Here is the input.
Amino acid sequence: MSDLIEKAAKIIVKSKNLIALTGAGISAESGIPTFRGEEGLWSKYKPEELATPEAFMRNPRIVWEWYAWRIDMVLSAKPNPAHRALAELEDMGILKITITQNVDNLHERAGTKKLIKLHGDILTARCVSCGYKQHLSAPPKDLPPKCPSCGDILRPDVVWFGEPLPAKAIEEAFESARRADVILVVGTSGVVYPAGLIPHVVKNYGGKVIEVNVSESAITEITDIFLRGHAGKILPVLVLKIKELA
Ligand code: OAD
Here is the structure.
């Protein structure tokens, strides 16, 4: 493994335009369950039935109860060494952009600044009618919460099944993928599109793919270097190696 980490570090040190794509696995060591896998959220709840506009129209209270539980979890979680390692790589001027599918705020809290959030933000509520947005520092008390601007109901400002991704975020993400010479893919199953396409775009434009995951993913077949293990263990070691070489 240390040979592979050294190889990855060399590629990264030589890179001119490194980007990162992260998924739920990077927050697993902060105590936020991933979506897929035995311990995944989806084994206890059925997001396919809850995280949809139809479910929300049918029963906004139940959907909000599920989000309130997750909001509590995000608020009590802390960034882990993997989030901090990416923030440090950005500070060093090496990592140019981090693209995340996560709706938690752990990258921001770790200090990442150039962040593209593809799937929205669980700590923001948005009015279904007038678009008013509200930051949530706690789960709303009365569910579903009412819009203070127009009186209609607020929804979580996240992307649900069947909904398009925020246009600006997706344009910026794909533009950065076309420009990247290396992508570091961390803790994603790679099965949700269009996010799962981003490493393929980097590869098709001649870039290299380095993946960190506890198990193989849909991305692994196109990776140049696969670093198997926990992101919170591997990324700090990778950053140390990069510092030695830089
Ligand atoms: P998944 O739950 O699909 O995948 C998590 C990945 O993280 C898996 O490949 C695990 O093997 C890996 N993993 C788990 N723990 C890890 C650790 N400590 N270190 C490294 N890797 C680890 O999560 P995503 O790929 O993020 O979308 O799922 C993509 C999207 O599916 C989510 O953003 C969500 C869901 O539908 C929306 O809500 C729109």
Q: What stands out?
A: The chain has a mean pLDDT of 94. DSSP finds ten helices and nine strands in the chain.
